[in-house]
Structure formats: structure tokens, C-alpha cells
Give the backbone structure.
Amino acid sequence: MTPPMPSIWDIAGRLSRTQYWLFAALGLVLPFVAWAALSASGWIDPVFMPGPAAVFRRLTAWLTEDDLLADTSISVYRVLAGFLLSAALALPIGLLIGAFRPVEALLEPLTDFIRYMPAVAFIPLVMLWFGIEESAKIAIIFIGTFFQMVLMVAENVRLVPTAQIEAAQTMGATRDEIIRLVLLQSAKPAILDTLRITMGWAWTYLVVAELVASNSGLGYAILKAQRFLKTDTIFGGILLIGVIGLLMDQAFRWLHRRAFPYMHFKR
């Protein structure tokens, strides 16, 4: 008897590339259709929920009249600067916490303690320490991502199978070689996923960062629009941040597929 054809709805089932992009497009389009229908129904005042057409017109005017490119570029710079600074420090610290129990005992409870403190609570201190320049905004994004990233990287390293470490020790590998050639190499795919996830967190802290005496940026534009009930600008800024974040997320996924193709051949 011929076995039944696998269904796309099987547990851990497979989709062709065409099927995947069809479902992805559907998932993106349906919320906009629902938004447009709700806006056109007249049930909600346009002051509180403008339609997609009104938001698109506002984005066009923002681009041609109000320096949208400048606001976008400065926000991207702030997010990337805070994220890269966080990654530069979190990766080695997380690796050490995951590799050595004394370092774990020394640093993990402290990191756990600090990561529950809301980044917005640090704004007064950040302004005292760094003033109101770009460094203050970058510091808020750093605080919002660094401690989470440290713990996630440490967990990525801890999940490396003990058998790999023991095999390396049996073959005479030094401690440095085990860290570089076993732990780091085995944890690389998970660490790249950790960076992708924490990049999303960096964008969520953008509006908080731009509370610090800003006069530019997407988060600043959203906060300014709130004061004047310009909900089309608020919606436009939120959507633009979402689009930029989606593009960055897809770039990380593309990099993951290129760097670790053996993890994607079944998908």
C-alpha cells in the first residue's frame, strides 16, 4: 500500500518555499484588511484610528516635507550602536558564565538581579552620567538588552553536549581550545539566534531611549505626535519601526541559513 502523502498540517510538517511565502503574505495582509475594514465601518473615530490610506498619506508627507529619512537614520544608528556595544560585552561574558561555574556563581545572580530593573527607571541616572547627548540614548538601549543577552548567551553555551567536551578532553585539547573550538563553535547557531531576538528588544527600547531630550528620531516623532493627537503619525511611525525590524530580522535569518546551511536543509 502506498503511504499517504504528508500533510502541511502534520506536526513539524514541511512547507515548500512557495507555500511558506503564501502563508507569510497572508499573515501580513489579513491584519491590514481587517484594519481597513474597521476604519471604513465608521465605528471608530478616525482621530483614534485612522485608516491605512490616511497613514500612508502621512508617511508620504513625512518623507517629502518632514525629514523622515533623517529621523529613520538617527534611530537606526542609536539602535545599532546600543546593540553592538551590548553584543561586544555580552558575548565574552556570557561565554565565560556558560563555561566556568565560578564565573557563573559570581556574575549570574547579579545579572539576574539587574535585568528585572526597568530600563526606563535608569533615565534620570543616565542623564546625570551621560548628559542628553547621543551617548545617553545609546546607554538606555544598552541597558535594555545587555543583561538579557548575557544570560541567553550563557544558556546557549551551557546547552553544548557534555560528550563533545569530554571527547575534546580525551584527545588532549587545552582549556582554551575547548572554549574556542568546542563550546563557541557548537553554540554559534544558538548565539546568532540570540542576537536576532535581542535586536528586536533593542528596537522596543527605542522610544524609551528617545525620551532623553531628543529632537529627532522615530520614537521622538511618535511621542511628539501623541501630544497633538496626530494618530496617523503614531501609526506611521510604529509601522515603519515594524518594517525596519522585520527587514533586520530577515537579514539575521538569511545570515543563519548561509552560515549554518546544514540546519535548514529539511525546511
About this structure: The mean pLDDT is 88. Residues 68-99 form the longest helix (32 residues).
